[in-house]
Structure of Diacylglycerol kinase:
Amino acid sequence: MAKRARLIYNPTSGREEMRKRLPEILQRLEKGGFETSTHATIGEGDALMAASQAAEREFDLIIAAGGDGTLYEVVNGIAEKPNRPPIGILPLGTTNDFARALNIPRDWEDACNLIVRNYTRPIDVGKVNQKYFINIAGGGSMTELTYEVPSKLKTMIGHLAYYVKGLEMLPRLRPIEMSLKCDELEIHEEVMLFLVANSNSVGGFEKLAMDASLNDGLFDVIVLKKCNLAEFIKIASMALRGEHTNDPNVLYFQTKKLEITSHDYVQLNLDGELGGTLPAVFTNLQSHINIIVDESGLSTYKHQRK
Ligand SMILES: Nc1ncnc2c1ncn2[C@@H]1O[C@H](COP(=O)(O)OP(=O)(O)OP(=O)(O)O)[C@@H](O)[C@H]1O
């Protein structure tokens, strides 16, 4: 019997490829055994609602078509449901960091073929207060600045690279006093930026969280301590090579739960979207959602420790 899939797509995402390709995508899914109905999102929060309804209606699969923003909403729509259909990803957005971390092809035909192969793996999901993320969360004055630049450059780490180029923004960075607490340690520091990562590939920084595995139940936490402009630029260039964790201004550790507080106003960035403010408790929900992945691309999924 054919499986029932719900295709949730952002018609404005990326180069608006979904508008052109929808009939062909539906045909391909049908041939591959997925009877698919569609929901075109109309604005912010709509993919979340659509995914929540799809879980309640017990679809066998939810396909998130668009950028990281659409996937983020789909994850948030199903994360609290007792029945969570697996997610297939059609990465047709401007930024698809998570799909890249999973080696999901950007070509729509290849991505459809992957979906119909229907090889799923459980992936950890991060819970922050009452919201969820699947790739990376972060905060600090640097991540606040990311909302001031054009949406095409929205992803936090993409912005980091952007800032390295656009040096005029850098003098505005300021350290913020924060407390980070977990079972393993307690830190009180002036912090430029903290990142709580689930995958090891974020934006242009493929080696940012080197030990990150998508289903080990652990976050990889990176904290950039107070530093000056020259030190910051040095660390950003080290981060491109995965060498930043050797720098004394960088703390790197793994934990399954983390509490971060500050007397300052600190916004949170969850998978590139605004996600509330500190204080926050980050909890790793191990293997919480099944995602369709490429069997041959599992090296990123299983991550080989050095
Ligand atoms: N029909 C719509 N019109 C305008 N905005 C929409 C529509 N549907 C969804 N959105 C919004 O677009 C946001 C970004 O979408 P998404 O990440 O899928 O695409 P993107 O092309 O990667 O995004 P961006 O161009 O903003 O980087 C979503 O978080 C959602 O709030």
The longest helix spans residues 17-31. Confidence is low (pLDDT under 50) at residues 149-154, 299-306.
